[in-house]
Amino acid sequence: MAVMGRPKSDNPKNKNVTIRLTQDKYREVMKFAEEHSQTVSKTLMDGFELLRKQEQST
User: Fold this and answer.
1) pTM of the model
2) Which pLDDT does position 5 carry in this prediction?
3) Residue 27, domain member (yes or no)
4) Interatomic CA distance for residues 38 and 47, integer angstroms
5) Can you tell me the distance from the alpha carbon of 37 to that of 43, in angstroms, rounded to the nearest whole number?
6) Which of 6, 16, 46, 57 is deepest in the core (most CB within 10 A)?
7) Domains in the chain, number
8) 51 domain-assigned
9) What domain range is 52 assigned to?
10) Which residues contact 32 (CB under 8 A, 6 or more apart)?
11) Which of the residue ranges 2-6, 14-18, 24-28, 39-43 would you say has the lowest mean pLDDT?
């Protein structure tokens, strides 16, 4: 019988990070993510990548 389902990832995303936000910051993040049609995770990862690039250029 053929194997079914998604193929295994070479680099699985199996780690979680939790942050605490004020109600105002939470609303800002959620609004930004929605306006840019992104998940909250994608929004925060994009921000992290921007900080890394900024740090590398200095």
Assistant:
1) 0.75
2) 87
3) yes
4) 12
5) 9
6) 46
7) 1
8) yes
9) 23-56
10) 43
11) 2-6
Instruction: Tell whether 3 is covered by a domain.
Output: no
Would 34 be classed as within a structural domain?
A: yes
Predicted local confidence at residue 1, as pLDDT: 65
Please determine, for residue 37, whether its predicted confidence score (pLDDT) is greater than 90: yes
The C-alpha atoms of residue 56 and residue 49 are separated, in whole angstroms, by 11
Q: How many residues does the chain have?
A: 58
Q: Which residue has the tokens 């200095």?
A: 58
Quote the tokens at residue 10: 């070479």
Distance between CA atoms of 44 and 33, rounded to whole angstroms?
9
**8-20 burial by CB neighbour count: b if 16+ within 10 A, else e?**
eeeeeeeeeeeee
Q: What are the percentages of helix, strand and coil residues in the chain, rounded to 5?
A: 50, 0, 50
- Whether the per-residue pLDDT at 2 is higher than 80: the answer is no
**Three-state secondary structure call for residue 54:** helix
